[in-house]
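Final report, Chapter 2: Outcomes

The project's central promise was a pipeline that accepts a single protein chain and returns its three-dimensional structure in a standardized token representation, suitable for archiving and comparison. That pipeline is now operational. To close this chapter, we reproduce one record exactly as it appears in the project archive, with the input sequence first and the structure output second.
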Amino acid sequence: MHRKSLLRDTDHGKAFARAINPQVQANQRWSWRMSSAGLLAHAVRSHGWAFIPNQILPPLLANTSVAAILYTSYLQILGRLHQPSAEPAKRVYPPSPPTKTFLAGSAAGAIQSVVAAPLDALAVRFRPADLLHGRVYGSMWQYGYLKTREIGIRGILAGWSLSFVKDSLGYGFFFATFEYVKSQSYYAFITRYYGGLDWWNLPADNHDRVIRPHYAIEPCFLLSAGMAASVAQQIINHPISRVQDIHYRSLAILDRKNRNSVPVSQTVRLYMAAYRKTFEQCRARANQFCGWRSWLYRHFVWNTIRQVPSTSAGLIIFELVRRRYGTEVEATRIEKDGYSIVLR
């Protein structure tokens, strides 16, 4: 189970809620009882209100913390690379070039992958059956603490290189696409559209030669930017996630060998052997589906459609918060054909 969106997935709690839901276990037709709200309501009725702080709150706090680290890192790094972005203004003009937003997004994704390595290690080893009726772990808090002690630093870093590549490249394209559509494309559109208007199409009382674009144009570009960024990220994340799903199946064997306190040199050989085995398994899968591209991007469209709403919403909230607490500065003016296009 890997991360699926901008905010880390809270499937730990939802998987446990599905495991204790009789409708889900009976494979009944979908109904509102199988939605997130329905699963949570049934879990609270069955286990009391303590289910929320014990099972739902830990992954929710982890997701929020990692997302905060990602966005904070991105803004700080972008401010170093592009001086206007360092100013706490509601609108950045001129916008940062795609190369700098890509570098800032890649660096932020790399930082996030390091901080989130323990969460990924816990996610891929999570089994709802271990929490049912307190068989192994009494709560998600206990699961996180005991499992981290059990696997140690070696288990935490197992498979981390794949997450590092996926996060650094994925968030590089993610933020670069978002900023490009939101800023460069928006400014180019209003400059071309309003700059092409003839003077007689403007109001007669417009003596100061000022054009204020329609207020609905920018939200449309913001929404489009979120959708485009989600697709761009999935182009990178989807194939790497396919490889991760196969590689993570070998972690149980590596965990058992690490418990025997094998030397570090032998551990490195074990991990290298695991990567070679993963490559052979991936090649066999690719041959079954008539090539690497067919296998790596299998179900790409459906998974991308599922991710677009949540990812777009996260980016829009991020942008609204950034503008809400931005500093009021002089309105941005774009000069075109003797007129000033004013943006606030």
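Archive annotation: The first strand starts at residue 210 and ends at 211.
This record, like all others produced under the grant, will remain available to the consortium after the project formally closes.
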